Amino acid sequence: MRWLYLVKILYDLPKLRRFVRSPLQSLWSILSGRDIHFIAMGGGRFLKRKMTAPNLYGFIHLRLSGVELAPQQPDASDQLLWQLSSTGTFLTRLTVGMDLMTLYELFGRKDYGEEFQGKIVVDVGAYNGDSAVFFALRGAQKVLALEPYPPNYALAEQNIQRMGLLDKIKLLPCALGPKRARSRFHVAPASPDANALEPPDSPLQKLIRYEHTQEVEVLALEDILAELGAESIDFLKMDCEGCEFSVLNQLSADSLRRVKVWHIEYHAKPDSLVQKLKEAGFVVRKEKDRRGLLGYLIAELSTGA
Fold first, then answer.
1. Number of domains in the chain
2. Helix, strand, coil abundance in the chain, percent, nearest 5
3. Is residue 65 part of a domain?
4. Looking at the whole model, is its pTM more than 0.90?
């Protein structure tokens, strides 16, 4: 991952110049494995931060898209605070995972869209709370977020509180699966965005180092509906590193139709999911497809279904 993002940063070198004190110093720091950067805070002020290459790339594009850093920053050299609303701040990690990349995908690139006014949203794979916060800030009536990994859960809980969104977001320390159970969860401490119940058999996933497993609580779709006290879900975001296949493949057409929009990040060829969703009455499209290995599957319930 380091070398892939180093190439991306080299391509973006003119942009990097706007946001670090010395682009050459930053490049050398990546090459030497130190990952130390002096980032621009405005007014001629620079902040020393330890930041991996993927997160530095995300930092560049977050700043280019207009997402602002908070005026007051934490003392920890591996953290940054972002001003995501006029009163709320959001904390990101810089040396593990892809916190700045996922934040950019949401607030910069708008991968999930922008309009959630009055909607009931389920966020499967809530990570550090970024997507749940995004949906709530974009008008969601209620967000039910699932994140089973304790360090991610703790950070998500803090961020939801820091953003002042406890009244809109309910966070559960659970995963989504085909049935309610206690299941083994594969943990990659250096890549907490890639933790998985069922790591997909994908070339990209072979780059992830899973160091141990732990037992987590798993909910089924019917449990989520019961938790919401709702007959249907307007939008379900699924980023669960492979669980999409076991979850969708066991659902009946009637159960699938209780979700009006499925937004699924897939991690293997999604043909079986496409077929199942189409047969259930959904209009399905792929976005940002990487040769069938990774991408988004967006399924919207047809008005006639």
1. 1
2. 30, 30, 40
3. no
4. yes
What range defines the domain where residue 190 resides?
110-305
| Contact call for residues 261 and 236 (beta carbons, < 8 A) | yes
Angle of CA points 112, 113, 114, to nearest 5°: 125
| CATH number reported for the structural domain that contains residue 179 in this entry | 3.40.50.150
Q: Please indicate, yes or no, if residue 64 is contained in any of the structural domains.
A: no
Residues across the chain: 305
In a structure prediction context, what are the per-residue pLDDT tens digits for the chain, which is 305 residues long? Answer: 788 899 999 999 999 999 999 999 999 999 999 999 999 998 889 999 999 999 999 999 999 999 999 999 999 999 999 999 999 999 999 999 999 999 999 999 999 999 999 999 999 999 999 999 999 999 999 999 999 999 999 999 999 999 999 999 999 999 999 999 999 999 999 999 999 998 877 766 777 899 999 999 999 999 999 999 999 999 999 999 989 999 999 999 999 999 999 999 998 899 999 999 999 999 999 999 988 789 999 999 987 66
